[in-house]
Every structure is written in C-alpha cells, then in structure tokens.
Amino acid sequence: MTQPKVSRVAPPELVAWARSGRIRVPQFQRSYRWDAEDAERLFDSIFRGYPIGNLLMWRKPAPAAEISLGELRLKAPERSDALWVVDGQQRLTSLIGALTASEETVDRRFRIFFDLRDKKFLSAPHSKQPADHWLPVWVAGDNRRLLAWQRERNWLTDEDFDRCDAVATAIRTYEIPMYEIEGDDEQALREIFDRMNTFGKTLKRAEIFQALHSAPLDVQPSDLEALRERLRALEFGDFTSQILMQSVMALRGGKVDRDFRQEFKDDEDLHSAFSATEKALRLVVEFLKADARIPHMRLLPYALFVPVLARFTHLFGRPQGRATELLRRWIWRGSAIGAAPQGNTVALRRNASAIEDDPVASAGRLLELLPPGGEQWQPDLAQTALNRAQAKINVLGLLSAHPVLLVDVRDVEDNLHAAGTRIERTRLLTELLDTGTSPLFPVVESPDRTIGNRLVHPGFSMSAAAQLLSSATPETRRSHCVDDGCMELVAQGRLDDFLRRRSELVRKVIADHVQSMALWGFSDGPEPESLFSDDLWGAPNAT
Fold first, then answer.
1. Which of 59, 130, 365, 505 is the least crowded, having the fewest Cβ atoms under 10 Å away?
2. Is 440 helix (H, G, I), strand (E, B) or coil?
3. Rounded distance between C-alpha atoms, residue 239 and residue 385, angstroms
4. What are the pLDDT digits (tens) for 47-67?
5. Paired sense of beta strands 416-417 and 120-123, if any
6. CA–CA separation, 157 vs 47, rounded Å?
7. Three-state secondary structure along 496-537?
8. Burial class of 136 by CB neighbour count within 10 A (0 to 12, 13 to 18, 19+)
9. Which residues fall within 8 angstroms of residue 143, CB to CB, at 6 or more apart?
10. DSSP state, 403?
11. Alpha helices by DSSP H, 291-411
C-alpha cells in the first residue's frame, strides 16, 4: 500500500465526481443512517467553518453500473480511478444528496434549507411547502440558480443578499481533508481507519470491509431484493417480496395479482417500473409515518394498504389536503373493522381499482369499500401478538400517549438515550421492531397477558416496571397510562385492582386515538365548500 495521499476537496468537486461516477459507495446493509438533524448540523458546520472530519477513500477500479448516492441516480462508466468510500459515507451522502436535490426530492434528509430570517439551517418534508425566505442548499451551490432564485424575490434586502452570498461561498469554498489510498494491503487500511477521527454516526469496521469485497455498488433496483435493500434506508422495516411485487403491479394498473414473470417487455421497462415503485413507496412511507402515525411496517395492521397507497402516490403524488384526511380515515377504519372482508386478493383488486382520475374521489371510493359498523368498535385488550391487526392497533394506541424511557438505554450503535426521552424520538422502537422483538414489556409480575399489563419500552434488567414507575414523575407515569390511583394500588399490593384500573385507562387511550384517526361519524367526501361553485354563488364582488 502506498503512503496516503492527502488533499483537500470542496463540496462542488465531490458533486462533480459523483455525477461522473467516480465516487462509489459499497452496498451496506443499512447504508445511510443519518437523520435530517444530522444533515442540518453538517451544513451549519460548513457555514461556520467548523471541522467535520476527514474522508478516507480507497482508489481502485470500478465496473460500469447504475449507481445512486442519496437521490442522485446515474449510469456510471467503468473507471480505473474510482474512489471507494471507506470512511465518511454519511457526510458524503448528505452533502451530495442535498446539493443535487430539487423541489421534487422526497427524502427529508436531503431537503435542506437556510432560513434567511432566523439564520439557521433546517429541513422540511416533501409535504411541507417551504417558506419563500428559505434558501435551498441545492440552489446556493449553483451560481446561476442562485441568481435566478434571487431575481424572483424582489423583496430581498441587502442583508438577505449578504446571507445568500455567505451560504453560497461557504458551500463552494469549504475544504474537506481527504486521504486517498492505493494498494491491496488491507491490514494497513484497517490500521489507518482505526486511527482516524470520524464525525457523526460511524459505521462498524467489519461492515465496511465486508462491503468493500462484496456486491460492488448500491445499484438502481432491478429486482425485488434490490428494491427491498434500497427501501431499508427509510427505517420503516422490511417490505416482503409479495408487497413489493403487488406495489409494482398496482402502479401499472389492471389486476394486481396477475403473473409478474411475464409483465415486462424488456430490461428498460423493468428498470423503469422498479424506479417508479421506489419513488412511490418513499412517498407512502412518508405519509404513513407523518399522517397516519404508523412508524413501522410491523405496526401496519394490513399489508394491502401499501400497494394501494403506492398506486395513489404514483398517480397523484403525496396525498394533500382533503385526500390526506380521507386516506387516514380509510387506513384506521380499515385497521379496526377489517380492510379485507372478502379476502386479501379480492380486497386488493377492488381497492387498487378504486384509485383513478381524482385523488379526493379515489380516497372517497376507498372509504365506501369498507364494511359498516365501525362506530361501535372497541379495543380488544387481549391482543398483544404483533401478527394480529388488533394488537398493532393496541401498540399504536399506547404510542399515542408518547411514552418516555424509564431508564437510560443504549441503542445498537452504543448511543445513550436518557431516562425521560420520548421513545419515538429515539431509534430504540425501530431497532426492536426490526429484529422481530416485541416492544411490549410487563408492568407487574402477573399471569395477566393483556395490553393492560404491558407498556411500550425496551426490556429492563429489573423484574418489573412498577418499581421504576413508583419513583417516576406524574408526567412520566401518564405517558405509560398509569395515574396516581394506579400507584396507590401497587403500593397496597392490590395488583389485580391495579391491572383493572390501568386496563380502563389503556382502553380509553386506544379508543380515543383510533377515533381521532378514523373519525367515525364525520362527513366523508370532498370538503363541503368545494360542492359550491362561483356559478352558484356568483362571482366575488358581483352586483
């Protein structure tokens, strides 16, 4: 191995290398782990001139392939001088993903803006219209686009122009130290990696070196396994082959359960279908997390929601306005009373066929396909196994109370999450669900196996959660559906009475959450005001 070549590289040069296919990222199992706040901090550090760590690149040949980096997709030629990322992949992906983004970018981690008013970097989901004074970093990194953006805003002050220039200059001139290594001495490369100081959430050494000698690239999806691999980055859990296949077919219309093997005319048709499905499913996941309040695939009561929503997002984009509200009702009503009364295959066909022409009308037709009777629905507290829809509803109901950690807990990357932290603001719930572990833990030692004796929490080293709840604050207890009356019963040793009391509290929390999502008893269909036109009421200011 040669002595490392040390140089400094600016973000625009990294973008140019990425666009030319020179930068190659090995295909890790979970290749991109940063969240939006990490990306915001990265650009803030660049703006302030703070160090963000070094890059370690292994220079070696790379084959021609279709690759991706962030949301940048391209056909890369064969390169003899490719730079394979050994350390710094999180920073590179965030930088390149944000600087090559656009208004159509879905992943919030690449939708980074500089707020000219508050003078800070922030991110925004695809569903949120950015404020007019938010400067996109992908605009700031390109002088022509920046000038056009500024010309469209004649209200910008001299101070605003100065801030735009400061952001643009920082992005274009910031220098990142880069170590470039050639040769085949892997032991020396390991030694260098061990000694380097890294920034952010580093990858484990074994992951990196296994990936450097495995599948060469993070390729554009061309089969179900590749598509599943790319969707893992969304941290929504694994999509089964069946769900992915149904989603591909739902986008293409017709009978969703037709023969998948004879579907595509050629490789170009197949690649196009899988690329469109990936984009649609990214929007589906964003909708399920942000609007339907379902954080993980294992908590989704019915799998058929995914291909149906994929067809919706493919035709109409991310749900907006009234369509968002009606689709949320459809998911939660269907979850509670059964979205597939005629069987999964028939229900999938009928629901997918209902998506056409108009987003609000399509969502209304989905609601009409549900069986009646939801107004009388009540939680089934006996259900705790996550292979049952009602158990998933129970867990989602407990999560609606925003439970907090009762003890300090470390995640798989050894990050410490302090007691009192809301569980949904950590990676802990996702980790439990990813591994197939139940997120439910007993409150007291009892034969009672209902949800009334369960809370959402990583497992304790103690024998029972009640010991921790006894010393917790009232707010912490309420986050786990435990009130002062419950704790008095525990102190008196009346555990059966405690469980009865807590079961009623849990029942109410779950029922209230389901009603707030399903909105039984409310009028469905378009917004009432949309039923009236100017022709009926007369044009504004008409005499």
1. 130
2. strand
3. 19
4. 999 999 889 888 888 889 888
5. unpaired
6. 20
7. HHHHHHHHHHHHHHHHHHHHHHHCCCCCCCCCHHHHCCHHHH
8. buried
9. 168
10. -
11. 305-316, 321-337, 344-353, 359-368, 389-399
